[in-house]
Amino acid sequence: VQLVESGGGLVQPGGSLRLSCAASGFTFSDYWMSWVRQTPGKGLEWVANIKEDGSEKFYVDSMKGRFTISRDNAKNLLYLHMHSLRADDTALYYCAREGAGPALDYWGQGTLVTVSS
Amino acid sequence: QSVLTQPPSASGTPGQRVTISCSGRTSNIGSNTVNWFQHLPGTAPTLLIYPDNQWRSGVPDRFSGSKSGTSASLAISGLQSEDEGDYYCAAWDDSLNGWVFGGGTKLTVL
Questions:
Q1: Test the B interface: residue of A46, A47, A50, A111 with most B CBs within 10 Å
Q2: Average pLDDT of each block of 10 consecutive residues along chain B (110 residues)?
Q3: Which H or E run includes A24?
């Protein structure tokens, strides 16, 4: 199982960014997927998840309306579209697979998003 | 303010047994499995224990978990220097419809 995030970088406050997570080594379309972030000096915070076929999505309240999770099962890709970014969105963003349990059983190495002027 | 409550720090000497607690609510720990993660500097978080107290293939059996009601704990026996890092608990919350995490416990091997 391998998860590789990309798309992070420096963005100005109010800007937008799209993160991607390339999945391999398992049948991507059989699993819920999540995004989790770690802000500087703080702990892990779950952002959103999406059902196997994309028909259900859940978000943490503080990011509803600004972040959108999506997936392309044909390309084995998970996305996080982020809008109206704020300084406190600066974080390392991880994608994670949700296995049986449920359990966040595999994680990528993360992609760093920095929101600053 | 994390939904699940963990002590911010824990410590022990090599060979000792250390436990880390995680307290939650009926809607999360009380209803769903508890995940325990090890997060070492510069690496991705690694799932140690699931569901609740079944350890994962490849994870040393020095790590064990337990749950009672709305609380859970992670025990590490035979502490080693490479165990030093951050440890998090997490569970799905049926009321919030999302995953909730503890604030993390920084483990120091003295």
A1: A46
A2: 94 97 96 93 86 69 91 96 95 96 96
A3: strand A17-24
